């Protein structure tokens, strides 16, 4: 397999409520809506793609009345952002106001950051570490 040094990464997840999930990721974390689509019929689903426009990744959330699978997050379904510095208290407050719930992700992540569950229960870890020392 060959790839560029930084291929684009898509993380796709089902959501019970796309509006609530979007508020968490956009109003709470500060991601942008990169694309939005609505189901045109059976077998399709509503979706919203979120991310930072220049990033090499995006988060795709799917939902709507035609969604065939419900979110089933586990304690190990982590979306980790390495901040390489402290987690600002106002960021955690914004995430909570946007529908997030602060949770423990175990001793390692509790030591190295803050974990907030999104409205579907998936966990966002804001790590104080940098990627090179993770």
TrEMBL record:
Top-level taxon of origin: Bacteria
Protein name listed in UniProt: VOC domain-containing protein
CDD domains named among the record's database cross-references: VOC (cd06587)
Any Pfam family matching the protein: YycE-like_C
PROSITE patterns: VOC (PS51819)
Lineage: Bacteria, Bacillati, Actinomycetota, Actinomycetes, Micromonosporales
Gene3D superfamilies given in the database record: 2,3-Dihydroxybiphenyl 1,2-Dioxygenase, domain 1 (3.10.180.10)
Residue ranges constituting the VOC domain according to the UniProt record: 7-129
Transmembrane segments annotated in the record for this chain: none
